[in-house]
């Protein structure tokens, strides 16, 4: 929709307000509702938005270790720009027009902390190299018969799941929640997040959804919007949805796997597929895969960004712990699916549902392109069988602090994303570690309170 078409749409439909949002460093949507006049006035030069949204954490506590903004700068406004191509209407909010925004400038001198701007730069590199990338992220999440108030009152214990027991792929369980289940599928599709599949996973009240693949930026936009949209739709039904990677030690974690492939500019030929190869893998795919494996230790916080992420990345929990790949192997970090040209793709299995899709997808694409640029050989053999026991290429970092320090000191990470982003992002992760390190947990109380 062009600017003129948008103006006509607003007039013809008597639109009085619009809603817009952007993703912060954690992938949480921040934004506001504005009048149509303010919306139209800002289409050219953007909208001033306090840059504190990149100077505080997920709980709005101000960082004391970042440079991009802070008390030292006075938290000024930065220009936030709405992307008109992201226009959609929110069907569960009276069809109010909605747009995504970011902090990208026309001259490329954007805010280094902005995740969507970072991904746009990586997409341009891919385009300049002559490739069209297709991505899709899938999510697992748990649903509870709780509200934000009841969760606070309960102290996040003794929560009631939407349904009891372990019942993956259950038709019965979804039928018992038919209104919610169908609302998810139908309303998300109306919100321009078409769903390929939706089902229960194993665990009480857990669902999984696969989003239809799209070009990289649009795929990331849909993934970011999906998480908030699910929470809003769930709230209509008295349900709270969580995308924590691992909310309970005794239950499976929640994945956010990323599927990807490279095509020619006409989107007619899958460049990852080669029928003449023993395993149908093109040289391009081998370089791409080699790049991802090589860069993994340098970029892990972009795939596993929270303290909780690493509670999921443990042996035997359907999440990887080693730097491995394999053919249709769900115990490895990267799973190759290559039965046909149309569906040949790489699946990055490290991300949980707690990822910021812009950053996880940027890491996945940039590291693959790194392998292509440097013509890296795929010298890591495919893992057959149990990937948890394949230690030939090392393990993933087991906690956020070690992963963040490795990325902060990595010349590879800085080459891919620039020193400004790496410095800001890793310091936000180190901040997260510091907040966790000073917390007294229920585990400590139960273990030490009386006995020590």
TrEMBL record:
It comes from the Bacteria. Keywords: Ligase. PROSITE patterns: GS_CATALYTIC. The keyword Ligase applies. Pfam families: Gln-synt_C. Residues 115-452 form the GS catalytic domain. Gene3D superfamilies: Glutamine synthetase, N-terminal domain, Glutamine synthetase/guanido kinase, catalytic domain. Belongs to the glutamine synthetase family. This is Glutamine synthetase. It comes from Mucilaginibacter defluvii.
């Amino acid at each position: 929709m062009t600017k003129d078409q948008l103006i006509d749409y607003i007039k013809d439909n008597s639109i009085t307000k619009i809603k817009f949002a952007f993703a912060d460093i954690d992938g949480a949507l921040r934004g506001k509702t504005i009048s149509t006049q303010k919306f139209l006035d800002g289409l050219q030069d953007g909208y001033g938005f306090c840059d504190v949204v990149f100077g505080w954490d997920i709980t709005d506590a101000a960082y004391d270790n970042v440079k991009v903004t802070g008390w030292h700068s006075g938290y000024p406004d930065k220009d936030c720009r709405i992307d008109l191509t992201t226009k959609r209407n929110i069907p569960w909010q009276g069809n109010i027009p909605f747009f995504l925004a970011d902090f990208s400038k026309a001259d490329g001198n954007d805010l280094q902390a902005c995740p969507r701007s970072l991904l746009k730069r990586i997409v341009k590199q891919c385009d300049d190299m002559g490739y069209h990338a297709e991505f899709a992220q899938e999510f697992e999440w748990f649903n509870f018969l709780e509200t934000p108030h009841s969760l606070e009152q309960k102290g996040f214990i003794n929560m009631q799941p939407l349904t009891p027991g372990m019942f993956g792929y259950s038709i019965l369980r979804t039928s018992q929640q038919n209104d919610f289940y169908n609302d998810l599928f139908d309303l998300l599709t109306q919100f321009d997040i078409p769903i390929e599949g939706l089902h229960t996973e194993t665990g009480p009240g857990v669902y999984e959804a696969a989003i239809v693949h799209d070009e990289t930026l649009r795929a990331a936009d849909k993934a970011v919007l999906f998480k908030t949209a699910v929470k809003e739709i769930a709230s209509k039904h008295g349900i709270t949805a969580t995308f924590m990677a691992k909310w309970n030690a005794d239950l499976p974690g929640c994945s956010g796997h990323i599927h990807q492939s490279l095509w020619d500019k006409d989107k007619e030929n899958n460049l990852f597929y080669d029928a003449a190869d023993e395993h149908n893998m093109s040289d391009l795919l081998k370089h791409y895969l080699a790049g991802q494996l090589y860069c993994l230790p340098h970029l892990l916080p972009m795939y596993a960004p929270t303290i909780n992420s690493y509670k999921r990345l443990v042996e035997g929990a359907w999440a990887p712990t080693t730097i491995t790949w394999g053919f249709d192997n769900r115990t490895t970090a990267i799973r190759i699916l290559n039965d046909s040209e149309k569906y040949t793709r790489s699946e990055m299995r490290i991300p949980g549902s707690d990822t910021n899709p812009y950053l996880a997808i940027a890491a996945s694409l940039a590291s693959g392109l790194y392998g292509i640029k440097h013509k890296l050989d795929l010298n890591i053999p495919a893992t057959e069988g149990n990937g948890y026991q394949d230690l030939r290429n090392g393990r993933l970092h087991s906690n956020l602090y070690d992963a963040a320090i490795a990325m902060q000191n990595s010349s590879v990470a800085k080459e891919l994303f620039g020193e400004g982003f790496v410095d800001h992002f890793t310091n936000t992760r180190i901040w997260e570690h510091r907040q966790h390190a000073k917390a007294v947990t229920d585990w400590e109380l139960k273990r030490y309170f009386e006995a020590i």
